Amino acid sequence: MATKSAIRAGPSGTPQRARGRPAGKTTTTDSPARKSTAGKTKPTTSPRAKKAGKRPSNVQPGDPTPTGRRRRYKPGTVALKEIRRYQRSYDLLIAKLPFARLVREVALDLLPADVGAELRWQSHAIQALQEAAEAFLVHLFEDTNLCAIHAKRVTIMQKDIQLARRIRGAWGGLG
């Protein structure tokens, strides 16, 4: 006969027998728990290794294999890859059409209304402005990074940009 402590209610509310030994009964012949199982291998294979050779029944032999989870890189690895990629490339990083729209908008604001409406731009002129703007920004961020390193930080902050611009002077290192 089962004791009161050995029977419990299951998930559906029906009584079930408790797993393991009944409460309060211990034996002195039990072996002590082992500290580690390192170095011991089981001769059986894992369930994943068994399933590796089988295909689901609805997959045909010519179908492409489904990709598993995407690779998870350590923090900073992708950033370093991007840095190397952009340092190798010579192409412009700002999109051309939004930059051209910005240039035209600034030119319309700076010029008188009668001149700005009929202003036309050569594509090489906008490309030259974009090259100069990106070179200026890259140089500014280099100086900003040096300011952050000088402050014993690796993260650039707004105060680093402000300091770099202040040190450069009114023309910002141009001329």
**Number of strand elements:** 2
- Give the C-level CATH assignment of the domain at 77-168: Mainly Alpha
In CATH terms, the superfamily of the domain at 77-168 is: Histone, subunit A
Distance between the termini: 99 Å
Kindly report the CATH topology of the domain at 77-168: Histone, subunit A
The gyration radius over C-alpha positions equals: 35 Å
Poorly predicted ranges (pLDDT <50, ≥5 residues)?
none
Largest sheet: 2 strands, antiparallel
Note the quaternary state here: single chain
Shape verdict: elongated
Physical arrangement of strands within the biggest beta sheet: 1-2
Question: Percent of residues in beta strands?
Answer: under 5%
CATH architecture of the domain at 77-168: Orthogonal Bundle
Q: Note the run of SSEs as H and E.
A: EEHHHHHH
Please tally the helical runs, counting DSSP H or I stretches of 4 or more residues: 6
What structural class do helix, strand and pairing data support? mainly alpha
